[in-house]
Amino acid sequence: MKNLWRALPFSFILLFLAGCGKQNLSALDPRGPVAEMQYSLIILSLLIMIFVIVVVAAIYIYVLVRFREKPGDNHIPKQVEGNKNLEIIWTAIPIVLLLILAIPNVMDTFTLAETEPDEDSLVIEVTGHQFWWEFEYTDLGITAGQDLYIPTDTRIIFDLEASDVIHSFWIPALAGKQDNVPGITNSLWIEAPEEGVYQGKCTELCGESHWLMDFKVIAVDPDTFEAWAQGMAEPSEELIEPADEVAAEGREVYEANCLACHAVGGEGGNPQGGPDLTNFAEREVIAGFIEWDADTEYDGEEVSALEGWLREPQEYKPGNYMPAFGHEAIDEDEMASLLEYLDTLRVLDDE
Ligand code: HEC
Ligand SMILES: [Cu+2]
């Protein structure tokens, strides 16, 4: 038991380090106006709390020392019955502190609730699925999965929905969380002044693989965004009818096994299916979290992470709705050409 107590501070440190991990999953490193606003509210309330603790502790210690019973001193202190001045002071100070806390909170709440789109803002409908994210750019006629491309310095308004259970949309560096509730549309806005990749997460316990329901926000300059949007809305013929022979064979495997659930270039997919794959080869990671170069084994042989995912998706994300494709479904040759085809799914040509 004693050892257990000793280990306690270390387990907190470990927990903290685990949370810091590789990605910027911290609200304490704000990268945009919304996150900065929320960060300053956190700091303000923290400062007020520290002030209260310091003042109360100081008075406590003072009283403890000053009014201690001293040896030989056995007179009874003067009995008092209330003190109007003190009552007023300790009622007024908390009221003032609450006002200092409330005024910026209420003002920022109104600013954060301004989710009416104007001609310069970009509206994106975000649907949470077990265990992946769908992003629909309604004005641009684009649907994307997992990687959320946004232009920098633009007001992005998210309309949050869910297709199955309650999820929660969170990009710690850009904004606080907001729930995706089936049948209800919640809204949220962000702005990203800097280009970069921001980590996103589902923060509502939504099933077995809830903790793996990650996504990336990719903020690019408006020109690159334009090029991306163009590529997504009108993908090249190559994605549908590859000129390369092997990729063309892969496309056939794809049409036979995958197209019913996954769209490419606006073709295929279904509402209960999986993420749009038009720009799949440009994903930062597979299925939200699997590194492309992760080592994997299937059937005693070393295979790429992507093949591992296609062969045994349950090994990675328990409870997800992607079926497994074993050797009987897709043999090794077919798999090789399928992987070749999946690698052609790109819409930005400079990468
Ligand atoms: C029954 C529908 C269904 C079929 C058929 C299907 N998938 Fe999926 N797929 C899914 C779902 C659902 C996910 C999301 C899983 C998750 O992350 O929870 C997914 C995820 C994926 C991903 C990861 C996507 C990303 O954004 O990172 C890839 C790649 C993929 N599927 C490829 C394929 C290929 C290739 C085939 C055909 C051999 C196929 N899928 C067949 C439903 C399906
Ligand atoms: Cu979720």
TrEMBL record:
Segments crossing the lipid bilayer: 37-65, 86-107
Domain Cytochrome oxidase subunit II copper A binding: 119-231
Keyword Membrane assigned: yes
Membrane protein topology class: Multi-pass membrane protein
Domain Cytochrome c: 245-346
PANTHER family per the UniProt record, alphabetical: CYTOCHROME C OXIDASE SUBUNIT 2, CYTOCHROME C OXIDASE, SUBUNIT II
Catalytic activity line of the entry: 4 Fe(II)-[cytochrome c] + O2 + 8 H(+)(in) = 4 Fe(III)-[cytochrome c] + 2 H2O + 4 H(+)(out)
Biological processes per GO annotation: ATP synthesis coupled electron transport
Cytochrome oxidase subunit II transmembrane region profile domain location: 19-116
Cofactor note: Binds a copper A center.
A GO MF label: heme binding
Enzyme class of the recorded protein, top EC level: translocase
Protein name: Cytochrome c oxidase subunit 2
Functional description taken from the UniProt entry: Subunits I and II form the functional core of the enzyme complex. Electrons originating in cytochrome c are transferred via heme a and Cu(A) to the binuclear center formed by heme a3 and Cu(B).
Superkingdom in the source lineage: Bacteria
Major location category of this protein: membrane
GO cellular component: plasma membrane
EC number: 7.1.1.9
Cofactors that this protein relies on: Cu cation
UniProt record similarity statement: Belongs to the cytochrome c oxidase subunit 2 family.
Localization, UniProt: Cell membrane; Membrane
UniProtKB keywords: Copper, Electron transport, Heme, Iron, Membrane, Metal-binding, Respiratory chain, Translocase, Transmembrane, Transmembrane helix, Transport
Record has Translocase as a keyword: yes
Source taxonomy: Bacteria, Bacillati, Bacillota, Bacilli, Bacillales
Gene name for this UniProt entry: coxB
